[in-house]
Specification:
Shape: globular
Structural class: mainly alpha
Number of helices: 10
Oligomer: single chain
Helix content: 40-55%
């Protein structure tokens, strides 16, 4: 095997590691070595980039924390659409799940400064924090119209109507389901953990004490890919709720 083919094999291995969204380089020696090679070897970095392009992936960031890749287009086989989000949910509920993702992210990063500073460590957020942020975002979106909604995807409108029609929480004796705002939050947190976007910080089963922290993957994706207008509204809703 010559050096070029060996490098392309290593490029494929690095992308394979990157696609395992919960894999942490600190726990994987091969991943750490491949990241070091990417950062030190310009030719190897170019080969990884070309390999990614062939898979319709885009590289957003690389550091000792990992290589972060995302679908390069809506048509990518790695892209996720509303119709791909959990079978058995109607279009209102799927749109509500998107809003829940945004509300959780805004709770961790209520200002843009935190997104730009890789050294900033957001404080842990609780299920109750996320629940209240989602409800506040939905109520805010419900009051807007016309030009105020110009940059918000229209397919998300059923989502905020769905959230505002739900009870915010459930009695402690009942299990949270998607018939409540807190149920949506718990479902989304599960999805975000599986996607490597959040880590559970304290697992208690109680909405006020169970806490989560964001990963570097979340920070980078928000910084590079967030729907700016929607995320701005979510940040405003979080700020107003905390004021």
């Amino acid at each position: 095997m010559n050096a070029t083919s060996s490098n392309y094999r290593s490029a494929g291995r690095l992308l394979y590691k990157a696609l395992q969204t919960t894999l942490v380089p600190a726990n994987d020696l091969e991943y750490r070595d491949l990241l070091a090679q990417y950062r030190a070897d310009q030719l190897f970095a170019q080969q990884v980039s070309e390999f990614a392009q062939g898979l319709d992936l885009a590289i957003l960031d690389v550091s000792e924390r990992g290589l972060i890749v995302v679908p390069a287009s809506r048509d990518s086989k790695f892209a996720v659409r509303l119709t791909d989000i959990r079978s058995g949910l109607d279009i209102q509920q799927k749109a509500a799940l998107v809003l829940a993702h945004v509300a959780i992210a805004a709770t961790f990063f209520p200002t843009t400064d935190g997104l730009e500073d890789d050294n900033y460590i957001p404080p842990p957020g609780s299920v109750a924090n996320f629940r209240d942020a989602l409800h506040a975002l939905a109520k805010q979106l419900e009051t807007l119209d016309g030009e105020q909604l110009a940059d918000i995807p229209p397919e998300l409108a059923p989502g905020w109507r769905c959230i505002t029609a739900l009870m915010v929480s459930v009695p402690s004796s009942q299990r949270a389901t998607i018939n409540s705002v807190v149920g949506f939050i718990r479902l989304v947190l599960k999805n975000m953990r599986e996607a490597g976007l959040v880590r559970i910080d304290r697992d208690s089963g109680e909405d006020d004490t169970e806490t989560y922290t964001p990963t570097q993957r979340m920070r980078v994706q928000l910084r590079e890919l967030a729907l700016r207008r929607l995320f701005d509204l979510a940040q405003t809703a979080v700020f107003n709720r905390n004021a």
